[in-house]
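Handoff note, outgoing to incoming analyst
You'll be picking up this chain. Sequence as last confirmed:
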Amino acid sequence: MSKQYNVVLVGIGAVGSEMLKILEQRSFPIGQLTILARSSRQEEINGKPYRVTKADPREFAGADFVFFAGTEGAKGASATYFPEAKKQGAVCIDNGADFRLDPEVPLVVPEVNPEDIALHQGLIASPNCSTIQMVVALAPLHRTSPIRRVIASTYQAVSGSGRAAIEELREQSPRVLAGDSVIPCQAYPQRIAFNVLPQIGGFAELDFTSEEWKMDRETAKILHSPEIRVSATTIRVPVFNVHSESVYIETDRPIPVEEAREILKNAPGVVLIDEPEQGKYPTCLDADGEDPVFVGRIRRDPHIANGLHLWIVSDNIRKGAALNVIQIAERMIADGMV
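Most recent structure output, in case you need it:
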């Protein structure tokens, strides 16, 4: 009989709920599952009831894995509970933002840098959703010819902000269509329905947002390329789920479009849809509820020989958060690390 593992899931919002679905779909070898949140209650996820317990450090006793679920920019849970979970001998995998840039904590995307998992000291960080899908697509190109420059514009769904933002878009949309002049806004500083907001996170250094800086610094850490330069503009769009990205790269040597297509067609975790003349390219509908990162619209820069444009689409709650955490755990099990 194969070994089973005791799992503690901290958080039961959009990401935590998706983790529960994925654990079941992928038949993760769970011995005992404990779900912790701010309050005790019953939750129904995908038609299945789950008991949720109020978070308490004593619940980490006997855990093999602790998964910290969190939406975009979420902080706090891992910083609060990691010390006790580590003391109990658990491996913690964190979807939150507390430790991503900590030099002592590996930041891992299994398709890109699985070797970094072995460097963990009880904690592994999962990157930001917009970073994950970008590096899954860029890493195989970077291995072919090092990428020196990245300019990215993201088009990010409201699910990245959690359930409240999803409900806000759902509630605002019919009111806008009905011609209401006053539309309440709580999740975002301005109305999101039928609108586009060029702000995700707070404004920081040089007036780039925290989300934009994450893409810069996390990409360099994951690819072990401190010299890589990433400039991003992150945009919130009125889409319920799935992030899209327009990404421009400059490489050391030119990578012909056909070579780039061949590389990405064989890259782990990537699905290539690139027949634009036939109207075939990735959209949010292709990626919704799916595991891979979808890539298309690959074209060379007409002015710079070593420049390429790509269109990258991925389910931000699934691959961009919940699935990536579980894949890290699966890789540890497969490699006998736990």
